[in-house]
């Protein structure tokens, strides 16, 4: 390497060194102050988030709402501290805010569906039309709520299937919330010659054989209507969602055996066919 080239590189290194030294001398206190403010802000954000979470837990507020609120508080405090630190370093945040706003607008248009799910998730968490453990039905899907996320709500049914519903399909729709129980509705016909009071008592006794039926909402058994083959008996009772079909099939068996033992006739439609020669 020739001498002029070496002198040029040394001059560049000296220039860079002088620039860094000047920057550190001039802005060292600002850098230290900004770093201390940022670390203090992180500590305050953590303490504030923990305080909010503890208050929610103390008042037995839903854990989903607690997590969302505490994380939101932490993020807001960190953003405020970051703005203060940038100002401490002499960096104007106005152009950055404008750039972020423009980028956010473009991202919002591109991710409109995802953002609508997040907005619906915030609405669900704040208004709490249901909580984890409730049984809901919306747009033909039903199950027990296992998780409420910002983007979607996760259900599970008796078969162990996981059902994921985007939150935008929940807000604004007709929502059925039966909490931890689900209604069983069924009916059967009895002969017009049978004593309806005795039949109702037999069915109620058969239902009571199951310990899974909700005792806080007594079963409803009565004459639901009349048709050409007999009296229609309506049966309604509540069972835990997780054991819906198991309990329903068990009680159906209890009912049919009890009616047979009491010699209650269950009529069936009969069609007569005449063949003319």
Automatic annotation (TrEMBL):
User: SUPFAM superfamilies, from UniProt?
Assistant: Mechanosensitive channel protein MscS (YggB), C-terminal domain, Mechanosensitive channel protein MscS (YggB), transmembrane region, Sm-like ribonucleoproteins
UniProt keywords, alphabetically: Cell inner membrane, Cell membrane, Ion channel, Ion transport, Membrane, Transmembrane, Transmembrane helix, Transport
Q: Its topology with respect to the membrane?
A: Multi-pass membrane protein
Keyword DNA repair on this protein?
Answer: no
Transmembrane annotation, as ranges: 27-52, 72-91, 97-120
The protein, known as: Small-conductance mechanosensitive channel
Cite the Pfam families for this sequence: MS_channel_1st_1 (PF05552), MS_channel_2nd (PF00924), MS_channel_3rd (PF21082)
Q: Where is the Mechanosensitive ion channel MscS C-terminal domain?
A: 184-266
Q: Which family does it belong to?
A: Belongs to the MscS (TC 1.A.23) family.
Q: Where in the cell is it found?
A: Cell inner membrane; Cell membrane
InterPro entries xrefs: LSM_dom_sf, MS_channel_C, MSC_TM_helix, MscS_archaea/bacteria_type, MscS_beta-dom_sf, MscS_channel_2nd, MscS_channel_C_sf, MscS_channel_TM-2
Q: Does the keyword Ion transport apply?
A: yes
Q: Which residues form the Mechanosensitive ion channel MscS domain?
A: 114-177
């Amino acid at each position: 390497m020739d001498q002029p080239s070496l002198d040029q590189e040394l001059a560049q290194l000296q220039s860079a060194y002088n620039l860094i030294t000047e920057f550190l001398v001039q802005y060292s206190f600002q850098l230290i102050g900004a770093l201390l403010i940022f670390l203090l802000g992180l500590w305050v954000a953590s303490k504030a988030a923990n305080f909010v979470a503890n208050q929610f837990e103390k008042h037995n507020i839903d854990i989903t709402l607690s997590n969302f609120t505490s994380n939101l508080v932490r993020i807001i405090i960190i953003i405020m501290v970051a703005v203060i630190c940038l100002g401490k370093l002499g960096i104007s945040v106005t152009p950055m805010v404008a750039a972020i706003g423009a980028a956010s607008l473009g991202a919002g248009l591109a991710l409109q569906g995802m953002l609508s799910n997040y907005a619906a998730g915030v609405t669900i968490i704040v208004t709490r039309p249901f909580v984890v453990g409730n049984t809901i039905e919306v747009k033909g899907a039903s199950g027990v709520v296992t998780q409420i996320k910002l983007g979607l709500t996760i259900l599970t049914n008796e078969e162990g299937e996981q059902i994921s519903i985007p939150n935008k399909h929940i807000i604004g729709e007709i929502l059925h919330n039966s909490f931890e129980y689900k209604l069983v509705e069924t009916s059967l016909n009895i002969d017009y010659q049978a004593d309806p009071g005795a039949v109702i008592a037999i069915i109620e006794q058969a239902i009571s054989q199951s310990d899974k039926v909700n005792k806080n909402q007594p079963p409803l058994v009565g004459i639901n209507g009349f048709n050409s083959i007999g009296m229609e008996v309506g049966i309604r009772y509540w069972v835990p969602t997780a054991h819906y079909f198991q309990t329903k099939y068990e009680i159906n068996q209890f009912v049919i055996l009890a009616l047979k033992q009491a010699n209650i006739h269950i009529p069936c439609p009969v069609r007569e066919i005449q063949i003319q020669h």
